Amino acid sequence: GEQHGEALRGRIADGLGRWAEAIAATHGSDPDAYIAGFVRGTDYLPAIRRWTPDLLAEVAGIARGAGQPWEWIYASNLLDEEWTWAKERPAGAAPGCTTAGFAAPGEMPVLAQTMDIPNVHDGTQALLRVQGGDGPDCLVFTHAGMIGLTGGNAAGVAVVVNNLDVLPTSPAGLPVAFAVRGILERRTLADAVAFVAGIPHATGQHYGLAGPDGLASIEGWAAGVIVRAEPTPRLLHTNHPLYTEEAVGDAEPRYRRSRTRERLDYLVREAGAAGQERDGAGVRALLQDSTVPVSLGAEEPSMTFGAVVYECAVPTAMWVAPGPPHETAYQQVRW
Question: What are residue 254's phi and psi, to 5 degrees?
């Protein structure tokens, strides 16, 4: 954590500064008071200490290395949770991550997503190489100061996520960034599925998982978890629940703003017939769409911060576009 904070000190400071400006503009309150209220008003620490204690120490290390207050670094690792806690949201902003996975019989599984988050984070894209823990080494795409948005490990396990903020939440569950890194500490797809199925969830999320032996799709929220881990040649998901109807309130306005159904229809249409599953290059192209759109530019309140594609051999092969993939070239990340 301290190495992360020191290496990305300037980028972390820039990102937190822009976030502070956005808090003041959106909520009309002092940013320090807002962050203090958020930290006091939630109770995620017991779940973090129980399920991923080493990651709490990593967050503290990031704060020390970056020379930033612990509360701000901790809060910046609660991206989805702060969205849920906030009393207001910027007009037009809505989750927009798009996930696609393919595992044709006898072929290497491929898992991918666009990662859509508020555009105040643009310019803080970062890639972490995590080594030396009890689990396998891993490669993690994130914003500077955060322990992880998505990643793949040396055992071939990868994870992507879709926010399902219409589902019930808990101020005492395990936050999604900590769940993502907990998944990457697992050496098999089965162990990763068991971990996600066993934790309490702070926010509604879809976890797309892959390993050398296939794909798994999990929806978790405060009141439940549904696992779809049976063998399947494809995994397609956006930002509305597919396995539960426990949405809170009127979800349709959010679905319309994020165009979640249109994006899923695009994936289904472009995925083609069964038996024609896409390889890594085909999935990279799938996520470059700017018409539905799957890939959103930085002029949008919620932008495509980046796109990742994992080819789940041992170790995982990772491709990253550190920005909207229709504007930013993919780069292969070497171990």
Answer: -70, -40
The CATH number of domain 98-333, selected from 3.60.60.10, 1.20.1250.20, 3.30.450.20, 3.40.50.720: 3.60.60.10
Can you give the pLDDT at residue 231? Answer: 79
Local confidence band at 93 (pLDDT 50, 70, 90 cut-offs): low
d(CA 305, CA 189): 26
User: 235-257, pLDDT tens digit by residue?
Assistant: 999 999 999 999 998 999 889 98
CA distances from 148 to 34, 115, 181, 251, 252 (A): 23, 12, 7, 28, 29
Token pair in block for residue 285: 């192209």
Can you name the residues that pair with 218 across neighbouring β-strands? 207, 227
CA distance to 10, 213, 273, 279, per residue, from 293 (Å): 32, 31, 22, 21
In terms of DSSP bridges, do strands 224-228 and 234-237 run parallel, antiparallel, or are they unpaired? unpaired
Averaged pLDDT, 191-205 = 97
Beta bridge partners of 302: 118
Between CA 278 and CA 334 the distance in angstroms is: 22
